[in-house]
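During data preparation, a discrete fold description was generated, and the record follows.
___
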Amino acid sequence: MMKVAVPENVRSSHDLAAGLFGQPGTWLTASIRTAVWAEARNAPACTLCRDRKQSISPYALKGKHDICTQLSENIVEVVHRIKNDSGRLTKRWFDEQIEAGLSREEYIEILSLVATSIILDSYATAMGLPDYSIPSPQPGEPTKVLNPEVIDEGAWLPITKAKQTVEDHGLPNVPNIARAMGLVPSGMMHFFGTMRAHYSLSGDDFGISRSQIELIAARVTSHNECFY
């Protein structure tokens, strides 16, 4: 297998992202954050998730997830569904998780952690690199700082309030996919800070053209059944 050098900006952004899992978040303790990463790695081996993925509707099957952590049932459900079957999440399912005791802010932070872990672990697999070691959780309490700069625009959650302008690339200056994580700005920065080394609308030299970047991005999102 031919070895490809890892760009320094990728290495540094991944190192930073991995370390942040071990720090207290805005709404989750470091112990929960590191457990979310461990559970996200475990999720593909879950029998219930596999059977749901093969069924017409994931909501037709009940049961227990195969777990490797002490996370609560609703956090495990969120981690496994985002990791294994995100294309079929529904508003009703989301509301059920909130009714089960998960706050909207906690949901966003979990979403950020799972999505960031997918970047880190998928890149390591693709490049033939060893997986990052999940860091030891550091002491401290979540800040639980609310973000007042959010508005209701009919989404599942309030999103970032932002004056929208169209940039040269034809897209809004603040993409809705970023605004959707507005309840927890630190979660948004964690994910996008990791992703930016691999995909950005401007300012980076990726060695391929913008058209090629968009072709690859569109093909991958289609393969992953990405609703957005």
The mean pLDDT is 90. Residues 20 and 57 are 35 Å apart (CA to CA).
